[in-house]
Amino acid sequence: MKWGSLLKDIKEKVGLSQSPSTSATTAATASSSAAYSSSSNLDNNAPSALHGFVASSSRDKHELELDFKRFWEEFRSSGLEKEKEAALNFTVDAFCRLVKQHANVAQLVTMLVETHIFSFVVGRAFVTDIEKLKMSSKTRSLDVEKVLRYFSEVTNDGISPGSNLLTAVEILVSGPIDKQSLLDSGILCCLIHILNALLGPYEADQKQHGANFEDSFLAERNIVGDVGQVQRLEVEGSVVHIMKALSSHPLAAQSLIEDDSLQLLFQMVANGSLTVFTRYKEGLVPLHTIQLHRHAMQILGLLLVNDNGSTARYIRKHHLIKVLLMAVKDFNPDCGDPAYTIGIVDLLLECVELSYRPEAGGVRLREDIHNAHGYHFLVQFALVLSSVPQNQAIESIYSKSPSGKDYVSDGSSALHFIGRQDSMGMDPSPQHLSPALSRLLDVLVNLAQTGPPEHTGSYGAKGSKSSNTKPSGHSRSRTPSADQFGDENWDQGNNKVKDLEAIQMLQDILLKADSRELQAEVLNRMFKIFSSHIENYKLCQQLRTVPLFILNMAGFPSSLQEIILKILEYAVTVVNCVPEQELLSLCCLLQQPITSELKQTILVFFVKLLSFDQQYKKVLREVGVLEVLLDDLKQHKFLSGPEQHSGNPTQLESKSSSSSFKKHLDSKDVIISSPKLLESGSAKFPIFEVEDTIAVAWDCLVSLVKKAEASQASFRSANGVATVLPFLVSDIHRPGVLRIISCLISEDVTQAHPDELGALVEILKSGMVTSVLGHQYRLQSDAKCDTMGALWRILGINNSAQRVFGEFTGFSLLLTMLHSFQGDMEETNEASLVVYMKELTYLSRLMTAGVSGNTVNRMRLHAIISSHTFYDLLSESGLLCVECEKQVIQLLVELALEIVLPPFLTSEINVSSSDVTETESSCFLLNTPSGSFNPDKERVYNPGAVKVLIQSLLLFTPKVQLEVLNLIDKLARAGPFNQENLTSVGCVELLLETIHPFLFGSSPLLSYAFKIVEVLGAYRLSASELRLLIRYIVQMRQMNSGHLIVEMMERLILMEDMASEDVSLAPFVEMDMSKIGHASIQVSLGERSWPPAAGYSFVCWFQFRNLLKSQAKEMEPSRVGNSKRKGGSSGQQSERQMLRLFSVGAASNESTYYAELFLQEDGVLTLSTSNSCSLSFSGLDLEEGRWHHLAVVHSKPNALAGLFQASVAYVYLNGKLRHTGKLGYSPSPFGKPLQVTIGTQAICARVGDLTWKLRSCYLFEEVLMSGCICFMYILGRGYRGLFQDSDLLRFVPNHACGGGSMAILDALDAELSLASNTQKLESASKQGDAKSDGSGIVWDLERLGNLSLQLSGKKLIFAFDGTCTEAIRTSGTFSMLNLVDPMSAAASPIGGVHLFS
User: Fold this and answer.
1) How far apart are CA 1301 and CA 169, in angstroms?
2) Does some domain include residue 1238?
3) Residues 1080, 1050 share a domain
4) How far apart are CA 1311 and CA 1332, in angstroms?
5) Quick one: which of 88, 375, 999, 1224 has the fewest CB in 10 Å?
6) Residue 826 clears pLDDT 70, i.e. is over it
7) Residues 6 or more apart in contact with residue 885 via CB below 8 angstroms
8) Widest CA span of the chain, in angstroms?
9) Does residue 249 belong to any structural domain of this protein?
10) What does the pLDDT look like over 729-752, one tens digit per residue?
11) DSSP conformation letters of 1242-1275
């Protein structure tokens, strides 16, 4: 740096004009030249070099360098003190002049002299001169006048030693030269004392001049030509610049601890806040003095930030922390400067940081702050600042003062000071915090995060970073709150909270502040602290910070409440901690007389929390949220009785805290109680009585109870069900009540609390609900419908609820609700019909859901719907009118077919043809959510509903009558299942009675009715129905319509004969592949080995449809033999449809099998024992829709015979031996569990039209003889036993008593004799067929008796007769009853299988 430009810059900063500055510089140069000239005359013994030094001012640079070297050599070689002093003065003077002509100072010094020696010599000379001034004073202290005189005096030689030394030191510190030598010279201590002296004279001046000081002060500001004042400013600027440059050295602070210099600097900084600003406001000191104090603060900050920690002991020893704290404590907002005092707080932070550096030796200056009550002082300071107007006069003066950039020539120091002035000199808008207060909060945040480093590292690197990036330590966290929740500049690695007391300060400021802006800033800072390190929130939980904020939320605006909940949400979602104390505080706050908006906010937060993680169901229950909500419900004015509905809700008092609160509040970890806590009950501001909070309160209650057994138990123990039920009458509360009741009942899988569902049923029956206090409330129509809709959902979810619904006589609702319609018959109008129809829709669909798939409930429903009472109530309800008849029919059809539709769905029955009488293919199509359905494929599960339709037939309009009959006809033709159910309830007889009035006319009703009678009568006719038909024939023989009934009877008889082989005479199981492509019965065989020791026999009655292709029905030559299959049965026919009848495989692996029997779509029956070994039988002439008796016998020779004999498989169809063939076994591994599968497994699923039925099914553990198999066929489809009866012959059906059965037996004997010659098997079959008519065959009872005795001794593994146990629908499966008792004589010697499969 050039001295001329430096001097020019300094003068411009203090407001001096250019002309005096130039003249002063010229004068100084001239005086300097004169000094060299006069010096030669003072000492005649000086060397000749000194006498030759006098020369003109225009000497070139080279000559000056030579002069400097000569003077410096003279200084080093001189032995006399005076000679050394004179030589040094000339050396320094020459150096100062050389600097003006040389651009690179560092290069100049290095070239001329040893830098560190020259720096030390200059520094010591400066210190020595100042010490002489100090010693010359009586008080042994510096006098400012003497100091200024020293820097301005000129010797007789024209040299100014003081000024030159000061200039030389400033030049040395300005360049990139090591400053250690200067520090070693003690010059920094000396400069501190000089700065202290410069700060003192104005006080003396005010004592001398008194009231005239203000005038002198103004005169000082307007100085233009006063050279003395200019020189003072130059000296001050140089001193400050040198001190800042030296203070940036890491060892600068250490050089001050040997005397009181550092202590003096601390006191100077503190005095600036304690006295200077007060005197400035009183006009006793100029603004310039304040600026010097600010520079002193910056110097101290540089010393602290660059120290390695060794100063910590000195600071503690001399109680310097307390010195700074007193300045903060005594801050007076009327005369103090907030910006200056904030700077002192910055210094406190620097001291704390310094004590965590490597050389601090364990001294923690944070403890000094704590012991001096510094945290309390900082809180008070923040509160005082928050009450100070932002446009305080003292700040406005600083913002206008140009001195903010005085003496700033070093980039590192400029960064700090300019930044400070920018932040403090701004004019903030009224709605934001003052910059001073915002900066104080930043310092407190930094203080909280200051502590020992998390990761070990070299101090050098850290110190280097500090000196480069934050030279004064004040640029850490200076983020305004405009961006509330995100500051990307925060260093996540170093922001862990290390001082909880600093967090406590922020907490106290928030709770004690009256300024909303300050509270918002504190909350934003707290959020930043929590989000800056993952562990910060858990650390701060020790202070109960957030719980306290929550308890005081009622006094905060909504924006602050949102921030607090945002903090809590961050703790839950990011920190992943469970904030129990915080949630307890929210629950306590919920009980207080707070606004409904805040309660709504809290409840919404609870709902979000419950949806985020299921564990909060337990947490919120434990902190008492469930009890609070229930208590609020119990204190609802609605429950006080109907007469209290219009009362003032604020008159109700709420009970105090419940047991859960006491449990938490009595614990050792209790939060600090808020004065607002538990002052009054929540009934003053009830949750469930304010519209804004009702919906979210119910949401919260349901979320707490849903899928939480403990919460449900608490809800029940608090009598919650009885509490909420009366609210069913309220439109606004009803959805919430039904949701929580539905949740309780639906999730009670075993229905351990059946009284809850029973209570809903009783409420619907009576139309009244009773509260705990005994008050009764009547349910309106909407309430009944909504309740039935909820029950519909429950029954669809929980199958056990169906059972309870039936046990609590839920189906009697059909009678009670229809009876309630009758009570209002006098007032029946169009509006009432709409209401009744809606209720009937909900009721009927509820009944459908209750009966769907439940055999027991079907019987209960049948008892109700088939009663005369139900029909009478329905016919008298007025609903069977023109407007409602189609809807009633719709509901009855849904009930009959168990079509489960939502109650709120409105759909009608449409007819496929506009003119039913003109088409035979017309049928009802019911519009359902899944699309239209065709009655031809539907099943009638509840024929009682169809019976009601027939009973009500004459009440419908003529067209609808025909539509109903057409629908019943389609249902009757859908299959034997529907025919069985419809005939079992007497539909034929009822239909005949219904059409009796039309027998003697020509109504189209007759033809439709006779179609139905024809189909159902062909399936079954009772004696009474047959007599009625004969009576009608006799009566109608002379009438025109008589031919109709006669033709109907002819077709009926013909159909009965044709269908005799198609009808099952006993229960059966139907397996339908059209939906999911698989259906099977699986029987576990345990750890048996396969095959059984003596072989096995599989016998069953079965019927199938939609399997065979058309060409498969053509006669094919019989082919019997082994076939090599490339893949397994499941893979070989992957693209072809097949009926899998029987398989044995590994229980653990469905793809591994040891025997499999299946029928292919080409009519070929295959028995397979492995992927490569199978036996196929064709030409069996199987017919679809007919019942077939199939027996497969697979022999197994004993070990000895097995060496010479092969295993033989026999196939019997309808008692006749059709094929035989050799087929080897695939034995199963020993000890591996086996499983028999009857049907298609899921692994082989293939969706198609195939359906098949299974009647009796047996698996014997031995080979059955042909006579036994034939006798089983003779017993027929109706036999359901185990062949263990004492007299089996009494079960032989009448139609089997002809000669055909004996002919089959005779044919079997002939076939067995020819079994060894398979070429003669065909002719033997033909012989059997020729005698199948039974002509000439005698019924041999003795022979049949012998066969029955043989059969009774055969051992069974399992036997099914088509009977299913009650459906276990939770898993979508049925259980089949195994007729073989494992302990019975019929069972296998090694034990049977389980009773249920």
Assistant:
1) 137
2) yes
3) no
4) 15
5) 1224
6) no
7) 879, 955, 956, 957, 960
8) 178
9) no
10) 999 999 999 999 999 999 998 889
11) GGG---SS-EEEEEEEEEESSPPPHHHHHHHHHH
